[in-house]
């Protein structure tokens, strides 16, 4: 089976890293197309043996990329096209439909309550999402929270399937030697209490709130790993608060996330609008106590699945840091949640969906009774019944052959 993954870009982000993991664990022939420049992950994926093609679109409205993408898909004779992130889903589903691909699916990585991929949702964004969603055959929601949001948008429940993100737990296992080496390399005292965070430095992640929480707790140190448009403002904030001697903002591609997590004592995520919470899950795998504002990966499971993680109100971050600092550093055994979200399990679910689609001639055929989901759902609320919404597709989408009536595959949704 040949699968083409289409993604907006290959910068270092959660969706991009998740794609690389999926490629390494799915037992199918794969290729990748990035709509923008190759990005830092392109070479890593190529080194894993997966070809990567960059379309180098000039922007969201570069319609000229559509015929090129369609031709590329048609020439590859792919059995499945799997899209990731908003722009890739819009262009990828239209192109795959024009190319006559048998099965078109999407993974919804970043649909928040009021934003998608860190950007505010607009009526236009939502309308285009729904219009192109109907050109595919199913959407993989990375959490039950995302599944509910898709249903609230009017995506039919029969086309929403829970396929959680996954991690390689062993990669993040605490390493005392790495802790000492990383602290020494970064100039962090070995006995310092280090509060940390990892992720794209964009406004929605609210790393500024973590900086302020550490500023309110003298004696604590801060270690943030990531990059993005908020990096320079964060550095300015560090200086304005006088934290130059106890706060660092570093590049995770240089130092490595596992080593950085080993160097931390407490992991804090301040985002108020998450789709999953991959960084928090990696921190749990490293044995760190985690304090979060929003984290569906944890919230969608029973409390005993991640006893080291605790939700805090946005205005209580400083108090949470203070409480943990007073308790002193501790390392916890990786909780049940870590194995629940093992990437091997995620890859099995995705591969099973591919094979089911291939043998049935389309992922989820339209029926009066929804097809039962074969994907096991974690304990917690399941995706609610969806309302069928009738959004008119944009001009480009109208040219694409629509799925047939009652017996034809339905559609996916994605960013």
UniProtKB/TrEMBL annotation:
Region feature (Disordered): 365-415
Swiss-Prot/TrEMBL GO biological process terms: carbohydrate derivative biosynthetic process
MF terms in GO: hexosyltransferase activity
One Pfam family this sequence matches: Glyco_transf_4
Keywords, comma-separated and alphabetical: Glycosyltransferase, Transferase
Gene3D superfamilies from the UniProt entry: Glycogen Phosphorylase B
Annotated ranges, domain Glycosyl transferase family: 181-290
Annotated Low complexity bias: 382-415
Glycosyltransferase subfamily 4-like N-terminal domain mapped to chain residues: 12-170
SUPFAM superfamilies on file: UDP-Glycosyltransferase/glycogen phosphorylase
Protein name: Glycosyltransferase involved in cell wall bisynthesis
């Amino acid at each position: 089976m040949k699968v083409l993954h289409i993604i907006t870009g290959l910068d270092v982000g959660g969706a991009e890293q998740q794609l690389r993991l999926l490629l390494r664990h799915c037992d199918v022939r794969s290729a990748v197309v990035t709509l923008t420049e190759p990005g830092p992950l392109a070479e890593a994926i190529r080194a894993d043996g997966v070809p990567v093609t960059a379309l180098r679109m000039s922007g969201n409205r570069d319609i000229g990329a559509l015929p090129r993408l369609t031709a590329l898909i048609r020439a590859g004779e792919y059995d499945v096209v799997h899209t990731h992130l908003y722009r890739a889903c819009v262009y990828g589903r239209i192109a795959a439909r024009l190319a006559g691909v048998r099965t078109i699916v999407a993974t919804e990585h970043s649909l928040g309550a009021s934003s998608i991929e860190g950007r505010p949702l607009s009526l236009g964004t939502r309308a285009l999402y729904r219009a192109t969603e109907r050109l595919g055959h199913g959407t993989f929601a990375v959490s039950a929270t995302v599944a509910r949001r898709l249903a609230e948008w009017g995506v039919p429940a029969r086309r929403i399937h829970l396929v959680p993100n996954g991690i390689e737990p062993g990669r993040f296992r605490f390493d005392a030697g790495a802790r000492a080496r990383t602290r020494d390399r970064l100039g962090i005292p070995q006995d310092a209490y280090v509060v940390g965070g990892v992720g794209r430095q964009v406004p929605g992640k609210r790393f500024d709130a973590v900086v302020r929480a550490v500023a309110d707790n003298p004696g604590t140190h801060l270690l943030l790993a990531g990059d993005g448009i908020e990096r320079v403002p964060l550095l300015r904030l560090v200086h304005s608060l006088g934290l130059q001697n106890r706060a660092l903002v570093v590049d995770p591609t240089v130092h490595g996330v596992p080593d950085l997590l080993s160097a931390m004592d407490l992991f804090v995520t301040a985002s108020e609008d998450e789709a999953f919470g991959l960084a928090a899950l990696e921190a749990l795998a490293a044995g760190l106590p985690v304090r979060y504002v929003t984290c569906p990966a944890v919230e969608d499971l029973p409390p005993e699945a991640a006893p080291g993680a605790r939700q805090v109100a946005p205005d209580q971050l400083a108090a949470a840091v203070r409480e943990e600092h007073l308790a002193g550093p501790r390392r916890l055994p990786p909780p049940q949640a870590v194995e629940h979200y093992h990437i091997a399990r995620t890859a099995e679910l995705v591969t099973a969906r591919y094979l089911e689609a291939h043998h049935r001639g389309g992922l989820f055929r339209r029926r009066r009774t929804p097809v039962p989901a074969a994907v096991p759902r974690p304990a917690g609320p399941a995706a609610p019944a969806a309302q069928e919404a009738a959004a008119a597709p944009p001009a480009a989408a109208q040219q694409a052959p629509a799925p047939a009536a009652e017996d034809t595959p339905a559609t996916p949704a994605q960013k």
